[in-house]
Design goal:
Blueprint (H helix, E strand, L loop, with lengths): L2 H7 L4 E5 L3 H13 L3 E5 L2 H10 L4 E5 L1 E2 L2 E2 H10 L6 E5 L4 H10 L3 E4 L4 H12 L21 H13 L6 E4 L6 H10 L8 E5 L8 H6 L16 H4 L4 E5 L6 H13 L1 E3 L6 E3 L3 E6 L3 H6 L5 H7 L2 E4 L10 H16 L5 E2 L1 H9 L5 H15 L4 E2 L1 H4 L6 H4 L9 H19 L4 H8 L3 H10 L5
Parallel strand pairs: 1-2, 1-3, 3-6, 6-7, 8-13, 8-14, 9-10, 10-13, 15-16
Antiparallel strand pairs: 4-5, 11-12
Helix pairs in contact: 14-16, 15-19, 19-20, 20-21
Length: 454
């Protein structure tokens, strides 16, 4: 049982408030009481540590600057001890460096002084709505991001940790590597899962419409604005805003986005008033944002604000052992949608898929499977049915398709994959057969046919 669950079962939910200003402690205590929560107050790090050692809490609110140290130390201690306790920091107005540092250290979220009670209440509700940590780790094959490779296992574990924060997340990786799927997983596993997930393709919005699309507009703000309209921020209020291809934002819009993220407020086009918004920002791009910053095409301060937590999505060629299961899942889904029986991939087809570099990653694998199913006239998919694009000699050290007879090309691909499997297993043919997903007899036959000797 974790400490937050224990606190719930033993009575009213409790919050630890750490601040050396008596009026701030009183304000937070009163606000929490009106939300039906009990608060214990501490005026220093030492007192906070004593409270944490003897009490059980579901949230900790701490000022950044305390008489005997910084609240950041408390964030790190709680995070490193593995305690299931969200910690939010209170920073001085305009001190975004401290806020970002706290989020990177593991803080759940931050508040700026003077404290907005609306933002405080939203933060508290989100923290208390965090799902309990799973008692058992979900099986790799049951997760939305399928696979048991080291790279995919590491990504799923990082997503699980990131989901329990409100920090902005920067997802990067090649096109088709699953960045939006990862963003949706972060949303679904976090406190905002019951609220909207709004995905925006930044590269698909004309520059002239960006401000009104993001922040909304008032009636009469411009020609054609015949009624008030909410923007992406308002629609995502309480939930998650996913900015895909964020590198495509023009510099003029980057300035406005930075202010909206820092102030947690937006102003509709044609309005003189700002309105608070409570959204978590996730962003992604297949471009290298650091290079864009160096080229002067992306603001460094915005990159610093978005890149609080970085998640790199691995390319499919880094997870070759996951390809058979991925292909099977895709075939099942596509066949079900088309109302046809699920075919079987032959060993040769699996060998060809695992040797292919997949420049388009999982999206390309989906296209290959869908095309093969659409043209298939039987219940088996062979290597020739996949119609794979030629593999360049430099990329994979195999002959280019077209420069050799197709069977010779497939034989060379198969030989390369079998040799690699044998090398990985110390030429243990039983283990190599298991790694390749074929029987021992099938492997022995293929080795004889391809003249592979130990």
């Amino acid at each position: 049982m974790n400490v937050r669950q224990e606190a719930t079962e033993n009575g009213r939910r409790r919050v630890l408030v750490v601040d050396d200003e008596a009026d701030i402690r009183e304000l937070l205590d009163l606000t929490l009481a009106r939300m039906g929560l009990d608060a214990d107050c501490a005026a220093s790090l030492a007192e906070a540590r004593e409270r944490l050692a003897s009490g059980r809490y579901q949230l900790c609110l701490t000022d950044m600057r305390l008489p005997d140290g910084e609240g950041l130390a408390l964030v790190r201690e709680i995070s490193q001890n593995g305690v299931d306790l969200p910690v939010a920091v209170i920073t001085a107005h305009g001190s975004m460096e401290n806020a970002v540092a706290a989020l990177k250290a593991g803080a759940f979220d931050y508040l700026s002084k003077p404290v907005s009670l609306d933002q405080l209440r939203a933060l508290v509700r989100a923290a208390l709505d965090l799902p309990q940590l799973p008692q058992t780790v979900s099986k790799p094959n049951e997760a939305p991001l399928v696979g048991s490779s080291a790279a995919m296992t590491e990504v799923r574990a990082l997503i699980e940790r990131v989901a329990r924060s409100q920090a902005p997340v920067y997802l990067h990786g090649e096109s088709g590597s699953g960045k939006e799927l990862a963003a949706r997983m972060i949303h679904q596993q976090g406190a905002r899962r019951e609220h909207p997930f709004i995905a925006v393709n930044c590269g698909a919005i004309p520059e002239s419409l960006m401000e009104s699309e993001f922040f909304g507009y008032r009636k009469g703000a411009f020609t054609g604005a015949d009624s008030d309209r909410d923007g992406f921020f308002q629609v995502a209020n309480g939930g998650t805003l996913f900015l895909d291809e964020v590198a495509d934002l023009p510099l003029s819009m980057q300035v406005k986005l930075l202010r909206a993220i820092q102030e947690k407020k937006v102003r509709k086009v044609g309005s003189s008033q700002e309105e608070p918004v409570d959204v978590r920002i996730l962003c992604a791009t297949h471009q290298n944002l650091r290079e864009r910053v160096e080229e002067g095409k992306f603001r460094q301060d915005l990159f610093y604000r978005l890149n609080v937590i970085e998640v790199r999505m691995p390319a499919l060629r880094e997870c070759r052992e996951d390809i058979p299961l991925l292909a099977e899942r895709i075939m099942e889904r596509v066949a079900r949608q088309c109302g046809q029986a699920v075919p079987r991939l032959t060993p040769a087809a699996l060998v060809a898929l695992q040797a292919y570099p997949f420049p388009g990653n999982v999206r390309e694998l989906e296209n290959i499977i869908e095309r093969a199913l659409a043209l298939l006239g039987r219940d088996v998919i062979d290597a020739t049915d996949l119609n794979l694009a030629p593999v360049s000699r430099g990329a994979e050290s195999v002959p280019e398709a077209g420069s050799v007879v197709l069977q010779d090309y497939l034989d060379e691909v198969e030989r390369k994959v079998i040799v690699e499997a044998l090398q990985k297993t110390g030429f243990n043919r039983t283990a190599a057969a298991k790694l390749l997903g074929v029987t021992f007899r099938s492997l022995r036959y293929r080795m004889q046919r391809l003249e592979i000797s130990e």
